[in-house]
């Protein structure tokens, strides 16, 4: 029989220091201890108390201070008589006995020398020759075989390595991981990318390659999600679309494809009429816009600076050039300048001729007639020290040209047929970069430059 530490310490009666308040308790147990110790007296360890006290002591668990003292007592090994030289505190004895060669006996199975205190443990749990039964597969193994078997028994319940939380017999694990584990990787059947099984359904609600039926219920049964937009916009034959002549006023809506083609074919005349009325409506809009634009850009300053570009080309054409119209003030007279680069009348072929004429204006009814503002024409010299050509006049009240203009105004106006000679214009720098500048200034002050 294996003797445990507790079994032999209970048989002891040895001297130890005693705490005064434990005295009573201890003396009452003394008799019991003494009587049970007698049969084991040969096994008693040699006790050397650290104190002079000779009072017997028990190791009852509730006498903790005394126990501490006792455990600190210095003793020899229980195999002292057989030759073991070990000598230390009582509390280290158990540890020592695990290595004490005097305490060892051969295991009856594996024949290894095992300390007596460990023999029970050895034959139950560590002896390589012990016979043991696997708790999972219930098969019998020698201790040595068991070492190899442990951790490999195919009937042991183990957790799935994918951390899905499943615990199943090892032999079923491969099948679980391949087919059932919801943490296994599976390929999406539409886009072929790999997803953890329990996220696959969520993925497929967004997968760009997952097929979706056309919301217009056209002949296309289903198509990949990412192609649906283009299909609806460009190819779906069940999409209701407006007639291409919608902007012209056609209200027809029909399915793209055959239905729409038929509508267009059968309604050529109606569509033509709609287009015609749209065109005339737009023409009206254009002219309204034009006049609005003219008003915005109208010159109300009484001064026009007119740049004539492409001089050489316009010289060859010998035609009348008309300036943009302008007003003497916001509610004043409306005027226009005309220019003959190769002359007109008395200046024909020798001079540049320039005239001003009155156009019918918005406020003519309120203005004073005849027109009597002074008018001056200036041809700019574009050199650094310019010497401009200036001609001006104050209208004579008797002149026809300055009466209130009719709807078909005088075709020429009044001015200078010999404004500047063709020779002069090529001298200095009146002509530069193939352009000349003429200023026409209309002034109510009647003061004129001479
Ligand atoms: Zn020993
Ligand atoms: Zn053994
Ligand atoms: Zn097993
Ligand atoms: Zn799993
Ligand atoms: Zn997918
Ligand atoms: Zn469709
Ligand atoms: Zn139509």
SSE layout and pairing:
Elements: H1 5-9, E1 14-15, H2 23-37, E2 47-48, E3 56-57, H3 64-71, E4 74-76, E5 87-89, H4 93-97, E6 104-106, E7 113-115, H5 116-126, E8 131-133, E9 140-142, H6 143-149, E10 157-159, E11 167-169, H7 173-180, E12 185-187, E13 194-196, H8 197-204, E14 211-212, E15 223-224, H9 228-235, E16 240-242, E17 253-255, H10 258-266, H11 268-297, E18 303-308, H12 311-317, E19 320-322, E20 326-327, E21 334-340, E22 351-359, E23 374-379, E24 389-393, E25 414-421, H13 422-426, E26 436-443
The structure holds zinc ion (7 copies).
CATH domain class of the domain at 303-443: Mainly Beta
Number of strands: 26
Which ligands appear in the coordinates?
zinc ion
> What is the second-level CATH architecture of the domain at 303-443?
Sandwich
Largest sheet: 5 strands, antiparallel
- Rg of Cα set: 63 Å
Beta-strand percentage?
15-25%
**Silhouette:** elongated
Mean pLDDT comes to: 83
The helix-and-strand class reads: alpha+beta
First-last Cα distance: 152 Å
Q: CATH-wise, what's the superfamily of the domain at 303-443?
A: Apoptosis, Tumor Necrosis Factor Receptor Associated Protein 2, Chain A
Contiguous low-pLDDT stretches (5 residues minimum) are 1-61
- Annotation field: number of helices: 13
Share in helix: 25-40%
Protein name: TNF receptor-associated factor 4 isoform X1
GO cellular component, one term: cytoplasm
Region (Disordered): 21-47
Pfam family, one: zf-TRAF
């Amino acid at each position: 029989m294996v003797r445990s530490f507790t079994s032999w310490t209970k048989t002891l009666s040895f001297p130890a220091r005693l705490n005064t308040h434990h005295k009573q308790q201890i003396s009452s147990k003394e008799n019991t201890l003494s009587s049970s110790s007698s049969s084991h007296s040969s096994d008693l360890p040699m006790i050397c108390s650290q104190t002079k006290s000779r009072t017997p002591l028990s190791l009852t668990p509730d006498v903790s201070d005394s126990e501490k003292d006792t455990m600190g007592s210095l003793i020899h090994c229980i195999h002292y008589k057989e030759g073991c030289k070990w000598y230390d505190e009582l509390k280290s004895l158990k540890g020592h006995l695990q290595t004490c060669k005097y305490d060892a006996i051969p295991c009856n199975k594996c024949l290894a020398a095992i300390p007596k205190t460990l023999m029970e443990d050895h034959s139950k749990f560590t002896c390589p020759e012990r016979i043991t039964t696997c708790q999972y597969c219930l098969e019998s193994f020698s201790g040595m075989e068991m070492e190899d078997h442990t951790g490999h028994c195919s009937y042991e319940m183990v957790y799935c390595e994918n951390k899905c939380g499943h615990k199943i017999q090892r032999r079923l694990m491969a099948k679980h991981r391949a087919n059932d584990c919801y943490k296994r990787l599976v390929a999406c059947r539409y886009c072929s990318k790999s997803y953890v099984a329990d996220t696959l359904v969520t993925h497929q609600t967004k997968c760009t390659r997952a097929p979706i039926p056309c919301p217009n219920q056209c002949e296309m049964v289903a198509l990949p999600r990412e192609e649906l937009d283009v299909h609806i916009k460009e190819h779906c034959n069940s999409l209701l679309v407006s007639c291409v002549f919608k902007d012209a006023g056609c209200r027809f809506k029909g399915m793209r494809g055959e239905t729409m083609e038929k509508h267009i074919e059968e309604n050529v005349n109606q569509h033509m009429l709609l287009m015609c009325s749209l065109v005339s409506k737009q023409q009206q809009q254009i002219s309204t816009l034009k006049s609005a634009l003219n008003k915005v850009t109208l010159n109300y300053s009484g001064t026009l600076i007119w740049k004539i570009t492409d001089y050489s080309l316009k010289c060859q054409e010998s035609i009348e050039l008309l300036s943009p119209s302008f007003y003497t003030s916001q509610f004043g007279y409306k005027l226009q300048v005309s220019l003959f680069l190769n002359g007109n009348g008395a200046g024909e072929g020798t001079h540049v001729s320039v005239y001003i004429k009155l156009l019918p204006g918005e406020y003519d009814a309120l203005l004073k007639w005849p027109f009597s503002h002074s008018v001056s024409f200036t041809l700019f010299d574009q050199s650094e020290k310019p010497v401009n050509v200036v001609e001006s006049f104050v209208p004579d009240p008797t002149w026809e040209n300055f009466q209130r203009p009719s709807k078909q105004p005088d075709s020429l106006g009044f001015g200078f047929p010999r404004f500047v000679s063709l020779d002069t214009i090529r001298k200095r720098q009146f002509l530069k970069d193939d352009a000349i500048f003429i200023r026409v200034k209309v002034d109510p002050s009647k003061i004129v430059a001479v």
